[in-house]
Amino acid sequence: MLWLTITILAYFILAVVFLVDKYLLVSALPNPKIYAFLIGIAGILLLILVPFIDFYVPSIKQLILSFFAGASFILALYWFYKALQNFAVSQIVPAIGALSPLFTFGLVYISSLGKEVPSFREILSIVLLIAGAVLITIEKGKTITGKSLKLSFLAALFFSLSFVLTKYVYLEQSFLNGLIWTRLGGALVALIFFFIWPDIKKELFCQKDDFKKKSLGILILNQAAGAGAGLLQNWAIALVPLISVAFINALQGVQYVFLLVLSIFLSFKFPQILKEQMAKEIIIQRIVAVLLIGGGLVLLAL
Questions:
Q1: Cβ contacts of residue 128 below 8 Å, gap of 6+?
Q2: pLDDT tens digit at each of 302 positions of the chain
């Protein structure tokens, strides 16, 4: 179960990246659109690996799959950040956490012409993981609205599409070769965003000096860490069986556990940025959520 260990490590790094992103969004970079662009354009950096690997141009079919896999991931990030701009995290994250694995199972079933079907234990595991992910993020008084559900639906659909297409890329290409081509697809979409969204240009070239001095270094390091987590996540996709790709979506609940623990500790040092509610009912709710996620992991690891 190497893929399971790699996925959990990736989500731990992403939990740290999420907290730093939250710090930047609150204190220095209030436009989350730019994150989708930066993550996409960073894919070009993987071209430095070309001289050191057995790089090749795949078939036309694989090229199309690779570019759509990378493009879908950047589009998913766009809809995700757009949703976070307009709605609370508790309205968006639970919906995406529940929808993504379901979409992934559906896409795998359709693309395999019904040949890939999960076992009862796998279904029970993913139900526990989804339930835990929803329970650990949902907040009392924050309900999912029609508009928030629409944005969550789009983000979840594109995340699932990216995961499934990426798996089909790795079924025929080597890991590093497929990774480069999928990231080039994401970079192409990021370049399109650059030209159609003038506010991205403004954020990149018209930032105040205090942002450049205080936050640019943090932003670059954080994006590098996020890229590393993305690399681990792709490695897990390459290793996992096709029918189990949905578990990589569902295991995002582990990231929420890491976020919860880190937020509790850091909220004492940065209360103006990280405010963690400690009411008795919330503590009980999150303990139950952690137990559900733990139960799902145990079933998955058996």
A1: 292, 293, 295, 296, 299
A2: 789 899 999 999 988 887 777 666 655 555 666 777 777 888 888 889 898 888 999 999 999 999 999 999 999 988 887 887 777 666 677 778 888 888 998 999 999 988 888 888 888 888 888 888 778 777 666 666 677 788 889 999 999 999 999 999 999 999 999 999 999 999 998 888 778 777 766 666 665 555 555 566 777 788 788 888 989 999 999 999 898 898 888 888 788 788 777 777 776 665 554 555 556 777 788 788 888 888 888 887 76
Domain parsing of the chain, residue ranges: 2-301
- In terms of Cα–Cα distance, which of 96, 94, 99, 79 is closest to 143? 94
